[in-house]
Amino acid sequence: MRGFKLLGKEFATIIKSKKILIPIIAVLFIPVLYAGMFLWAFWDPYSQLDDLPVAVVNLDEGAVYNGKPIEAGKELVDNLKENKSFKWEFVSDKKAKQGMDDRKYYMTIRIPKDFSKNTTTLLDENPKKSKLEYIPNESLNFLSSQIGGSAIQSIKSEVANSVTKTYAETMFDSLKDVSKGFADASEGAGKLHDGTSQLKDGSQQITNGLGELSKKANDGLNQLSDGSGQLTGGLGQLVDSKGKFQSGLSQLASGSNQITNGLSELNSKVSSMPDGVNQLLGGSQKITNGLKATQKGAQDISAGASGLSQGVSEWKKQADTLSGVAQQTAGGAQQVSKGLADLNEQIKNLPEEYRKQLQPAVQGIMEGSQQVSKGTAGVAQGVQGLAGEKGAGKIEAGATQLASGAGQLNDGISQLADGSGKVTGGLNELASQSGQLTSGVSALLDGSQKVTGGLNQFVDPKGELQTNLGKLLNGSQQISGGLGQFVDPKGDFQSGLTQLQEGSGQVTNGLGEANDGSKELSTKLGEGAKETSEVKGDEKKYDMFSAPVKVKTEKEAEVPNYGTGFTPYFLSLGLFVGALLLSIVFPLRETVGIPKSGFSWFISKFGVLLAVGVIQALIADAILLLGLGVEVQSVPYFILFSIITSLSFIALVQFLVTTFSDAGRFVAILTLIIQLTTSAGTFPLELIPKPLQIFNAWFPMTYSVSGFKAVISSGDFSFMWHNAGILMIFIVLLSLGTIGTLTWMHKRQFGKFAEAE
């Protein structure tokens, strides 16, 4: 009871003393002055940005893109004229610089001369970004430069959207050309498919022809080889029989000479005619027998020469057939190669994706076709060489000449045989009719001389016939050896034919794949042409391309403006300053009477502080709610939390000043400074230096700011009560500290009075 009586005296003293009453009344408005003035000034600064002068300089020279003029700088200026975010002033570069120097403009936005030109470099090898120059005058006001930085980002987004929209319009226009290109490409691919189908059929015919060629070539070569063997054997026999024939001719010539000599002697010695006639008759019989043997040799020569000529003709005929087939194959391979070259040129006009798939296959086919062409050309050349003048031509000519000579020889021998028969008959007649011998000797001598001259023509003293027959035999043997290489399955010719046939098969398979690929390509290109033709641009699509993402903002506990956001911080500051000033105008250590105890002393002082603290909170809340229009989630909770906050600050200041007197007031100011930086009322706690973050949990303003945020913005009243409970703990602990201090002071100052009572 003594404490409440002392409290009544405190109020009475305040009311009676204007020196105390007036300052206390003034202190009642300190929180609202602090909080109200700050919040009023910073309530919504962004709503006044249209009064902030900003210079805009347009140096853009424009550009032309796809035949259309592009003036991005002028378009940006026109948009800014409609934009009321700042007080835009469109001036020259010189005036802008002068205005910045004269502190007239807070910032300058300069549009460079190549601004539009750079927007058209999207498809260039080295595209250039359009630059928008932002020049803030930070020395004039730093925050304005930060605000301007945010604004320039918004302008940048608008410009980017505009440029992207232009690109989108151009792209959709280009899609029409793309669709037409796809359609043309599809038609070309269809023709390509038809061409590859024909190539495939032709290649298959070549492959089949090569198989038939290989079979016929082998058969013909075997026949040629057999005929060549027969030719070589016949020539060998001819060479052997030629020796016998030459020997017989020599004997015949010698006998004929003897006849002639004998006739000469007969003519001179007719007297000895009977004996000579008998001798002549025996010699004539020998001549007749020799002519028969000679006639048989001549017939063998004629038969061999005819066989030789016939074999050579047959071989040459087969060689001509082989050469024709090889030349036909080479021509077909060249047509394939030409078709593939045309195909390769058509593929070059296709899109890169399909060109990469088809070109390797076509290139491989072309290489195989070239190998086919080279192989068949080699075959044709070899066969023509065998059938030419230096091969079969020489053999055929020699065989023909030999056959002709053999025929003449046979005719001569036949004539000689007839003559010899006549001689023998004459000799017989001479033997029977010796009387007529004398008259016929002269005629016989003349005939015998003619026979001897004819035989001398057939005699080959220089061996020319033997030499020519040897050469003919050697050539025939070389032909047989060469044909053996052609017939040999492991030889180059047979291997080349096999490789030629396999290569042609690979060409056919490759053309089959190319045919399938060209068909699929034509189908896909047709589908692409259809799909691209269905894509048409309009204003909605252009806007979608320029701004494909729309940000949907869903605010968690929305704060409408700066004032509402800063209310927890500035209201806490105002209440703390009010408590601090109250300690100056109201004595916290002096008493108006003698307190019974330290607790009664505390009641008398805290009662006054409690009343002033509540009134301060109520006045501040009324001005904020009714004057500035702060919107809170709950007015009663807001007022209640304001009172709790005010009392927690008063309890802190009372403890410090009561305990440390004026030094405690200085400590209270230090705590205020620390709390202003660590309470997370402005920047988040995580953004302040680490050493300062540790103070956050140890001072009441941290919890007052958090509690006000809950009751003003989020509506999380459980969190508000959590912070209110912590502030109540501060009040209780600080009050106990103050009671302890006053109890100690009471014992020192009023201990004797307490004992007397």
| Separation of the first and last Cα atoms | 16 Å
Shape: rod-shaped
**What is the C-level CATH assignment of the largest domain?**
Mainly Alpha
State Rg: 67 Å
**Annotation field: number of helices:** 21
Structural class: mainly alpha
What's the main sheet like? 4 strands, mixed
CATH topology of the largest domain: Helix Hairpins
| Helix content percent band | over 70%
Count of distinct strands: 6
Strand content: under 5%
On the 0 to 100 scale, the average pLDDT is 73
Order of helices and strands: HHHEEEHEHEHEHHHHHHHHHHHHHHH
Overall tally of domains: 2
CATH architecture of the largest domain, by name, is Orthogonal Bundle
Q: In what order do the strands lie side by side in the largest sheet?
A: 4-1-5-6
**Unreliable segments of 5+ consecutive residues:** none
Description:
The chain has 757 residues and is mainly alpha-helical. The protein folds into two domains: 3-44 and 561-755; 191-235 and 244-460 and 491-532, Orthogonal Bundle (Helix Hairpins), CATH 1.10.287. The protein is 79% helix and 3% strand. The longest helix has 127 residues, at 142-268.
What are the salient characteristics of this protein?
757 residues; single chain; four-stranded mixed beta sheet; 2 domains; two-stranded antiparallel sheet; 3% strand; mainly alpha; 21 helices; Helix Hairpins
SSE order and pairing:
Elements lengths: L1 H15 L1 H11 L1 H12 L11 E6 L4 E3 L2 E3 L1 H11 L4 E4 L2 H9 L5 E5 L3 H5 L13 E4 L5 H127 L4 H76 L3 H36 L1 H44 L4 H22 L5 H24 L4 H43 L4 H8 L15 H24 L12 H31 L6 H26 L1 H17 L11 H4 L6 H15 L2 H40 L1
Parallel strand pairs: 1-4, 1-5
Antiparallel strand pairs: 2-3, 5-6
Helix pairs in contact: 1-2, 1-16, 2-15, 3-15, 3-16, 7-8, 7-11, 7-12, 7-13, 7-14, 8-9, 8-10, 9-13, 10-11, 10-12, 15-16, 15-17, 15-18, 15-20, 16-17, 16-21, 17-18, 17-20, 17-21, 20-21
